[in-house]
Automatic annotation (TrEMBL):
Belongs to the FPP/GGPP synthase family. PROSITE patterns: POLYPRENYL_SYNTHASE_1 (PS00723), POLYPRENYL_SYNTHASE_2 (PS00444). Keywords: Magnesium, Metal-binding, Transferase. It comes from Scardovia wiggsiae F0424. It comes from the Bacteria. One of its GO terms (molecular function) is prenyltransferase activity. Its cofactor is Mg(2+). The keyword Metal-binding applies. Pfam families: polyprenyl_synt. The keyword Metal-binding applies. One of its GO terms (biological process) is isoprenoid biosynthetic process. InterPro entries: Isoprenoid_synthase_dom_sf, Polyprenyl_synt, Polyprenyl_synt_CS. This is Polyprenyl synthetase.
C-alpha cells in the first residue's frame, strides 16, 4: 500500500468547475496527439506505386484515418477525469504525470472504439450530434468512389476502425504502464476491462429475447448487463487503474474499484437511460432506446408500475420487429405517468450516495485529506 503524499499542490486538480475545464482541455489535447501519432498505421508499408488498386487503398486508408480523429472529438472525458482526479487525490508524483495522462487517454481511445462498434450494432445514425462513424465513412466513400456499395463498405471500414482503435488503446496503455513498477498489473487490468465490455455487449444483444411479461427478469438482466458493458470501463477501470498507478496493491485497487465503481457505473447508465427519453440536448435522437426496443431498467419499472392498459401498450410496441418515431411519445408518456422515471431518479440518487460514501470511507481509512476526497466526489457528480 502507498500512503497518501503530503497535502501539497495536487496534480490533476478537480476541486472546481474551472479546474475540471482546464484538465479536460489537457486530456483533449493529449488525446488528439495520441490518435494523430497512430496515423502512420493507416498508410501502406511502403511508398505505393501509381497503380489504381493502391490508389484505392490510399482513399480508404485516408478516410479511416480522418474518421479516427473525428470520432475522437467531443465527449465529456468522464473516465479520464475520474482516473486523473483519483491519481491527484492519492498523491501521484509529478514524475509520473505524463504516463498517467496517457493511461487515462487510453481509456478514452477505447471508449471511442466501443462507441463505433455500438453504433453499428444499434444502427445509430448519429453520435454526439454528428454522423456516426459508419455513416460518415459511407458518405465519404460515396463521394470519393462512386459506384461502390458505400453503405456496406462504410460499415465494414467502421468495424475495422473500431478494432484498430481498440488495439491502439492497449498499445497506449501498455507503453504508459511501463513507467510504473506494477506495469503487468496495469496492463492486465486494462485487458480485463476490454474483456468485460465485450462480454457485456454480447449480454446486451441477448436482452432482446427477454419476456416482456416478466419485468423482474428484465431488471435483473439489465443491471447485470450495465455492470459488464458500461460500469466496467466507465467507473471500475478508471478507479482500479488510478490506484494501481499510485502503487497501491492489487487487492486494495480492486476492492475500491468494486465498492465505488459498481454503484457509480450503474448510476451513470441509469441516468443515460433517462437522458434518452427526457433530453433533447444529448446529441442523440430522443427515444433511441425505444426505437431499438432495448430492455432497460426504466422499461421494467414501467411494466411493473403501469396500469393494465398502458402495460398492454408497452408490450405491443416492444413486441414489434421495428418501432417508429410515432411510438416514442406514447412510451415516454407511460414512463412518466407510471412513475418509472421518478423511480429511476430515486435509484440514481441512492446509488450515487452509496458510491460517494464508499469513496469517502475508503479514502479516509487511507488518511487522505478531506479536500482531496471532495475533489474526486466533485468529478463523480458529473456522472449523474
Amino acid at each position: 500500500m502507498n500512503p497518501a503524499a503530503p497535502d501539497t499542490a495536487v496534480l490533476f486538480d478537480t476541486s472546481s468547475d474551472g479546474a475540471i475545464d482546464i484538465l479536460k482541455k489537457s486530456i483533449d489535447t493529449r488525446l488528439t496527439d495520441l490518435v494523430s501519432s497512430q496515423q502512420h498505421k493507416y498508410g501502406p508499408y511502403s511508398s505505393p506505386p501509381s497503380s489504381a488498386p493502391v490508389a484505392a487503398h490510399d482513399i480508404f486508408l485516408s478516410a479511416a484515418g480522418s474518421q479516427a480523429a473525428a470520432s475522437s472529438h467531443g465527449g465529456k472525458r468522464l473516465r479520464a477525469l475520474l482516473m486523473l482526479s483519483l491519481c491527484g487525490c492519492l498523491g501521484l508524483p509529478d514524475t509520473r504525470r505524463q504516463q498517467a495522462l496517457d493511461l487515462a487517454c487510453a481509456i478514452e481511445v477505447f471508449q471511442t472504439a466501443a462507441l463505433i462498434h455500438d453504433d453499428i450494432i444499434d444502427d445509430s445514425d448519429t453520435r454526439r450530434g454528428s454522423p456516426s462513424a459508419h455513416k460518415a465513412l459511407s458518405y465519404a466513400l460515396e463521394s470519393r468512389r462512386p459506384g461502390i456499395n458505400s453503405a456496406s463498405a462504410g460499415t465494414g471500414m467502421a468495424i475495422m476502425l473500431g478494432d484498430i482503435l481498440a488495439t491502439d488503446s492497449v498499445a497506449i496503455a501498455h507503453r504508459s504502464g511501463l513507467a510504473f513498477s506494477n506495469s503487468q498489473e496495469i496492463t492486465a487490468a486494462f485487458l480485463d476491462m476490454h474483456h468485460r465490455v465485450e462480454t457485456g455487449q454480447i449480454m446486451d444483444l441477448s436482452m432482446g429475447s427477454l419476456d416482456l411479461t416478466d419485468p423482474d427478469s428484465i431488471e435483473t438482466g439489465a443491471l447485470e448487463t450495465y455492470l459488464w458493458k458500461t460500469a466496467s470501463y466507465t467507473a471500475y477501470a478508471p478507479i482500479q487503474l488510478a490506484f494501481l498507478a499510485c502503487a497501491f496493491d492489487a487487492e486494495i485497487s480492486a476492492r475500491m474499484a468494486h465498492t465505488v465503481g459498481k454503484p457509480l457505473g450503474l448510476a451513470f447508465q441509469l441516468n443515460d437511460d433517462l437522458i434518452d427519453v427526457t433530453s433533447r440536448t444529448s446529441g442523440k435522437p430522443l427515444g433511441g432506446d425505444i426505437l431499438e426496443g432495448k430492455r432497460t431498467v426504466l422499461l421494467s419499472d414501467a411494466l411493473r408500475l403501469s396500469d393494465t392498459s398502458d402495460r398492454r401498450t408497452l408490450i405491443n410496441i416492444y413486441s414489434q420487429n421495428r418501432r417508429s418515431r410515432d411510438d416514442i411519445p406514447a412510451v415516454c408518456r407511460i414512463f412518466e405517468s407510471s412513475g418509472a422515471i421518478e423511480r429511476s431518479r430515486e435509484r440514481i440518487s441512492r446509488l450515487f450516495t452509496e458510491a460517494s460514501s464508499a469513496l469517502e470511507d475508503g479514502l479516509s481509512a487511507l488518511y487522505i485529506p478531506d479536500s482531496r476526497i471532495s475533489a474526486v466526489v466533485h468529478v463523480m457528480g458529473l456522472f449523474v
